[in-house]
């Protein structure tokens, strides 16, 4: 596997030798000093170019970076899906996502100067690497502040809690109907998604200087207390319905603890009645016989 020095030397040497490439900058985790370093970190590279047409007509220039294991070109995928004509005439922004046979990955974007100026540095840190013409605007040194979790508004908090409890009834009926794909996707895309939002808010409120929990919560383990992290692990399940049910109730318990803490710190009301009512509903549906013809025994809690 080529080292970071070897990869960066190659990326910059190509840029220096090609007159069409006027500037180079890098995004992503390699610009963030707080991001853990490991062998899977991508090289998120942007070449600012005078034009894209010659690059796109003959893509053999990519071969210099090494043997490719697999490559994706998002614009070509759009073409195959009928979302674009595939005409590269006048294209000003193009990306190559490349995994090399030595294990390195590079996301290489070509951008016209106008596109770069409209978005630079964007919503992620940027590190200038080469600027032949002084075209890159001056920016502060990269940091991860753009990724810091923002405290929720009262509306965002209410929406998160209501969506969490509401969507669990879909998970419950899916289990009863024996609709496994529906169950797993519904759970992950709704209630578990809202749990992750609450986890992020809970963590951020314990860091006055701000904190980034990483894409898709990948740093949760780093910031959650051991007890909460062990609970969080149990919110994931295999395909057996008893285990899915167990994970649902662990998810409810963890969400309740974190959401109440967030509410206390921000002075927001928590949806006690929603929790009480839905917890009883979930418990009832879990015990509901497969041949049941009605749901009975529910009582609405208006005082919780």
Name a few traits of the molecule:
elongated; 304 residues; alpha+beta; Four Helix Bundle (Hemerythrin (Met), subunit A); 11 helices; Beta Polymerase, domain 2; 44% helix; six-stranded mixed sheet
Overview of the molecule:
Helices cover 44% and strands 13% of the residues. It is an alpha+beta fold and 304 residues long. The protein folds into 2 domains: 4-146, Beta Polymerase, domain 2; 148-287, Four Helix Bundle (Hemerythrin (Met), subunit A) (Up-down Bundle). A 6-stranded mixed β-sheet has the order 3-4-5-2-1-6. Strand 4 (93-100) and strand 5 form a beta hairpin. Helix 5 (154-176) packs antiparallel against helix 10, helix 5 (154-176) runs parallel beside helix 11 (272-287) and helix 7 (191-204) runs parallel beside helix 10 (241-266). It starts with a helix and ends in a 17-residue tail after the last helix.
Global mean pLDDT: 92
Across the major sheet, the strand order is 3-4-5-2-1-6
Question: What's the CATH C level of the largest domain?
Answer: Alpha Beta
Distance between the termini: 59 Å
How many beta-strand runs? 6
Unreliable stretches (pLDDT < 50, length at least 5) are none
Q: What is the general shape?
A: elongated
Strand and helix layout:
Blueprint: H1 4-17, E1 21-27, E2 43-49, H2 53-57, E3 68-72, H3 74-80, E4 93-100, E5 105-112, H4 113-119, E6 127-131, H5 154-176, H6 180-189, H7 191-204, H8 220-223, H9 226-233, H10 241-266, H11 272-287
Parallel strand pairs: 2-5
Antiparallel strand pairs: 1-2, 1-6, 3-4, 4-5
Helix pairs in contact: 5-6, 5-7, 5-10, 5-11, 6-7, 7-10
């Amino acid at each position: 596997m080529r080292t970071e020095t070897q990869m960066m030397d190659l990326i910059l040497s190509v840029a220096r030798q090609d007159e069409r490439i006027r500037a180079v900058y890098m995004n992503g985790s390699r610009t963030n000093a707080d991001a853990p370093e490991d062998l899977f970190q991508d090289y998120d590279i942007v070449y600012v170019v005078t034009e894209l047409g010659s690059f796109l007509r003959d893509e053999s220039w990519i071969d210099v970076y090494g043997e490719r294991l697999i490559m994706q070109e998002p614009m070509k995928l759009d073409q195959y899906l009928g979302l674009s004509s595939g005409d590269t005439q006048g294209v000003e922004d193009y990306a190559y996502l490349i995994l090399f046979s030595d294990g390195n990955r590079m996301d290489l974007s070509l951008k016209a100067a106008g596109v770069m100026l409209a978005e630079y540095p964007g919503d992620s840190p940027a590190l200038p690497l080469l600027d032949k013409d002084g075209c890159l605007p001056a920016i502060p040194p990269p940091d991860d502040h753009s990724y810091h979790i923002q405290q929720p508004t009262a509306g965002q908090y209410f929406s998160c809690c209501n969506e969490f409890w509401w969507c669990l009834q879909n998970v419950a009926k899916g289990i009863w109907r024996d609709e496994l794909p529906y169950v797993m996707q519904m759970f992950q895309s709704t209630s578990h998604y809202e749990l992750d939002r609450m986890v992020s808010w809970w963590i951020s409120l314990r860091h006055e200087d701000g904190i980034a929990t990483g894409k898709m919560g990948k740093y949760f383990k780093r910031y959650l207390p051991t007890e909460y992290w062990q609970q969080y692990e149990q919110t994931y399940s295999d395909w057996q319905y008893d285990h899915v049910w167990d994970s649902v109730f662990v998810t409810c318990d963890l969400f309740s603890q974190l959401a109440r803490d967030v509410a206390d710190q921000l002075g927001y009301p928590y949806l006690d009645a929603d929790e009480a009512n839905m917890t009883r509903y979930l418990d009832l549906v879990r015990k509901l016989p497969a041949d049941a013809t009605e749901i009975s025994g529910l009582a609405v809690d208006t005082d919780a």
